[in-house]
Structures are given as C-alpha cells and as structure tokens.
Amino acid sequence: MSTTKITMDSILSLSKRRGFVFQSSEIYGGLNGCWDYGPLGVELLRNIKEAWWKSMTYRDDIEGIDASILMHPRTWEASGHLSQFSDPMIDNKTSKSRYRADTLIEEYIAKLRNKNKTIKADEVEKRLASVSSNEDYYSIIIDEGITDPVSGTAEWTEVRNFNLMFKTYLGPTEDSNAVVYLRPETAQGIFVNFKNVLDTSRQKIPFGIAQIGKSFRNEINTKNFLFRTREFEQMEMQYFVKPGTHKEYYEEWVQIRRDWYKRLGMKDESLRFKNHEKLAHYADAAVDIEFLFPFGWGEIEGIHSRTDFDLMKHQEFSGKKLEFVDTVTKDRFVPYVVETAAGASRNFMAFLCNAYDEETVTDDKGGEEVRTVLRFSPELAPVTAAVFPLINNENLLEISTKLYKSLQQSMKVQFDKSGAIGRRYRRQDEIGTPFCITVDFETIDDQCVTIRERDSMMQERVSLDQVRSYIQSKM
Ligand code: GAP
Fold this sequence. Notes:
Shape: globular
CATH architecture of the largest domain: 2-Layer Sandwich
Bound molecules: glycyl-adenosine-5'-phosphate
Number of helices: 16
Mean pLDDT: 94
Distance between the termini: 25 Å
CATH topology of the largest domain: BirA Bifunctional Protein, domain 2
CATH class of the largest domain: Alpha Beta
C-alpha cells in the first residue's frame, strides 16, 4: 500500500543519503545555486540525457552537435541576450538583500491568497500582469507596502535590470575587447552552426539539430534544490522548417515530447502543458511542459515556434547568408524554427520525484515496515541489477561473482553480500534498482537464480545463461 506524501525534504534527504546529489564545494560551506551529482546521480542524469539523445538523433532527420560554451560576443548582440536577458531586481537598503521584483510581488500575492484576501490578491495580480517598466514594479512594491522578509522594512532602492549572463575574459588582458560570456542557452550554438550542418550532413528542410550541454545564468535568486540553479544542463533541439509549415511541426513536436515523458514513466497527473498567453516578440506559439513538484507546478521544458527570428538576426549581424536553397524548385528561404528546450537538471529532479514512493509492506518476520522505493523506468534506473549470493559460501560466491562480472559488461550492476536478503532488497529499492538476482544453494544443482522485480516484488526462477536476455527483454 502506498503511503506517500512526497516532500522536498524526503527528496533532499534521500539524494544526500544515497549519493544522488551533493552541495557544490560542501566542505567550504557550499556555493549557492550550484550542485554536484554523486555516483548514483550521475548515472541517472546520464540515462536521462542518453534517452533524450537517442530519441532525438537516432532518426533520419536530426543531427547532433556539441558547440563550445564560449562563443563570439556578437552572438549575444544578435540574439538579444546582451540587451534583453535581464531580470528586474530591487535591493533592500537595510538588509542589503537583493530580490527579483516580480518574485517579491508574486510571493506577496501568494500570502494574500493564504489569508483568503482574494479580491486584493486578484487586484495586485492584475497590476503585475500589466507591468511594462521597472517603475511599474516599484510602484506596486511601494503602494502595497511590501516588506523585506529579512529586515522587515520597506526601505527599497529603485528597480534596476540585472543581466543574467556571466562575464569573463578571453586571453590575458582584462579589457572590454576581451569580454566573453558563458552561454545562457545552448540554442545559439545550434543557430550559428546551422549552415555548417546543412552543408556537411546532406540534410534537407525539414531537419533538426540537437545538443546537450551546460548553460549558465547568474540567477538573482536560486531556489528549490536543482530547479533554479546558476549552472545547469540543457537538452535542446532546433527543427528547421519551411515557413508556412511551422504550425504543423510545432503540434507534432508537442506530441513527440509528450510521448517521450510518458514512455519513461511520467504519471499523467504530474504533467501538464501550459500555453503561453503572453508570447515573446519572436515566437508565434509556445507551451511550457510543467511537472507537479512537491513545491507546486514548475516548467521542465519549453516548446517554442520561434519563426525566423534567430537565423535572420545572425544573418544580419554576421553578414553571412543563412538560407536553404531547394535544388529542385530553386526556392530559397530562411527557415522557421520549432524548438524543444528541456532542462536536464529539472528533468532529473522531476524523474526523481515521479519515481519516489513509500509503501507499507510485510517484513521478514510477518510484521509491517515502510519501504522507500524509486520506481524508475528500467531505462533510467542508475543501477539496472544487483547480484546477491544468499550467504557467504565459497560456491555461491564463485557463481555470483561470475554472473556479476558477466552482466557488468553491458549494464550497471551492484554486488551485495552483506546482511539479510530483505535488507539487501530494501537498499536496492531505495535507489530504484529494477532487478535483484539471488544465487542460492539450488543454483549449484539447477543452474537457475531467483530474479525479484522491484515494483511487484514477484520472484521468478531464471536459468543463469538467460539472465542477461531476461533483463534486456524487460527493458
Ligand atoms: N533556448 C530556449 C531556452 O533556453 P528557457 O525556457 O529559458 O528556453 C529551457 O530554458 C529549459 O532550461 C527550461 O525549461 C528549464 O528546464 C531549463 N532551465 C532554464 N533556466 C534554468 C535554471 N536557472 N536552472 C535549471 N534549469 C533551467
């Protein structure tokens, strides 16, 4: 029986206890907005990225690339990031704390709702929705007497824009000519390579370019574990299409991405697709794929119909033609783009929350115990199988070690010979291992082992030489 009420605390505590995620530079007190993936976390993250990569590039019409994090600074002028990629920030003069002005107001609205002051909350929300300048944010904060959660005062500076790109210098001189930026999205590496891929891969429109890589945003406020961090990974795919056909491809990609999440075990009730009401100036359709985290709904991926905005801008700023020429019809045009932009780290947290369960089961002595189980799809599970010799007996150790070494050639396996079998099952349940294989005394005679499946806890006798194919068939 499932008894789960997932909280962020249970996810955080499991992540630390079992080595999924650690605070970055923990021995120095940690670094805000940065996290390290531990031995199990890195396996889960790699499996998510691998599942995405295969679904994107193991098809005829999508090529992969891996562009560098540092790009020519003109890239960010062309894309608009230099002038527009900023958040409105406000400082409290007493506490010296810095906040995103819009978040401060949103939190105030949430407080009003908690106190059932619905009319007032609606009124402030309406003002927030129609903000068009930093002065508008400032007026709301002052009019409403919003106070700093740290100092409790309403001593605010004016609202200013804060560019989220991290700056650094290329080469030994630290002057303005040497300034470069850590990319805030992987997409621009794809746009600037559009022509290279088109010319070298023999693709024709429609085709896509996929990339997985690190992005950096100097977020004013990081929050909710891996949800908003300063360094994170993105999995982006830009699909280049003939103008006029973009609506149909946009719909198709929304469906493809929905199917991907479902195939990997995302529960229907934990996923929603939220259309953007206010579109960015370059988009003619956009939807956020949101997951229901313990703290509420949060975006894990955006799908955007970006028109020809980016290629046109790069064409203008670089002076290079970024067109597709149809060799048959002689048609030439700058393609439109449908983008699927997922966060690998947000996906990681979503798949972890989606898998987390606690259920009451019968223990070895016939009593009740609560088992924590991560119900990952076998494709994503950090460890695919665990091999247990029933007891520390020379013959059993020999057979189980041989099986373990043989499975290790094609999957991630753990070997565990300590403690009662029940305890060993619980250890594997807690990290989501789908198959536990026990070598017992009967194995010596019948050359069969017991495979226990994580979710149903059903056991099956399987011949030693069939173990690998048994597991592969279940994956
Ligand atoms: N090229 C489009 C683009 O970057 P975005 O909505 O800004 O779009 C795409 O980002 C995805 O990247 C988001 O859905 C989210 O999963 C992830 N992401 C964005 N900012 C993030 C942050 N600060 N921390 C973790 N993930 C983030």
